[in-house]
Amino acid sequence: MIRIGPAGIPLSCKERTNIDGIIYTRCLGLSAMEIRFSRAFVSEEEARQIKKAAKKSGIEICVHAPYYINLAGDEKNVKMSVEKIEKSLHLANLMGARIITTHLGFYGGLSKKETMKRIVKNLREIRNRAMKKGKTLIGLETMGKKEVFGSIEEIVEVCKRVRGTVPVLDMAHIHARGNGCLREKEDIQRIFDMVESLNLNHYLIHITGVKYDSSGELYHTPIKKGDFPVIKLMECILENGYDVTIISESPLVEHDAIYAQILLDRAMEMIK
Ligand SMILES: [Zn+2]
User: Fold this and answer.
1) How far is the CA of 117 from the centre of ligand 1 (A)?
2) Tens of pLDDT along 231-260?
3) What spacing in Å lies between the alpha carbon of 269 and ligand 1's midpoint?
4) What are the contacts of 82-90 at 24+ separation with CB within 8 A?
5) Which fold has domain 2-271?
6) Cα 271 to ligand 1 centroid, rounded to whole Å
7) Distance 173 CA to ligand 1 centre (A)
8) Structure confidence by residue, pLDDT tens digits, 172-186
């Protein structure tokens, strides 16, 4: 199954609540939506209502934890980050979300090895407590800036070392970090091959256009303004029959989710 949807409430949805966003997303013909905790958390009551609305509309809910997370930082940083991830997980469980997406942290002055060690240790503790509470998986996002922990290799290694975590394949971030490395279908296939050993039966994928330089990601752009080939991603997904959820993190939130849906339909036509 291939589900596509916006990150956050669609821009053109007049009422700015998550519930209206879900209904509106359905009306646009999309099938997933990411609830973002970038500005504020929702209440437990709202989380329960989101679950009901999503079920009724047939929308798959994903959750994004607050952006500023550092599981490799000092004690205060780690404590704050753990609290944010655990609160997101709790609410995501109430919403019936399959996965929460989180960032992991920064190298700061640490070696890559030490950063990895700290992140794995802290994540294991979160995972141990989370497994007793619900089914929502912890999704680890591939990051676009080179100073931030989260290359595809690092994310795969953490997923191997911390069971109960899955990669979130932010294709634009992988593309930007690799200085525009995803050009052909084979390049995208290589990314799926890298996560094959994790034996996943579903992939959460983020897409957007992206500007980058030698330091990696600079900023997100509309899909058409970037050079990440979304159509080739769609071909790759279709040829392999992958089960995926694709979230548009483009500044043209729902516009680019619909554009991705059109590219998928076009790729289907070409395969026929
Ligand atoms: Zn993110």
Assistant:
1) 21
2) 999 999 999 999 999 999 999 999 999 999
3) 32
4) 82/122, 82/125, 82/126, 84/37, 85/126, 85/138, 86/126, 86/129, 86/130, 87/41, 88/37, 88/41, 88/63, 88/64, 89/126, 89/130, 89/133, 89/134, 89/136, 89/138, 90/133, 90/134
5) TIM Barrel (3.20.20)
6) 32
7) 9
8) 999 999 999 999 999
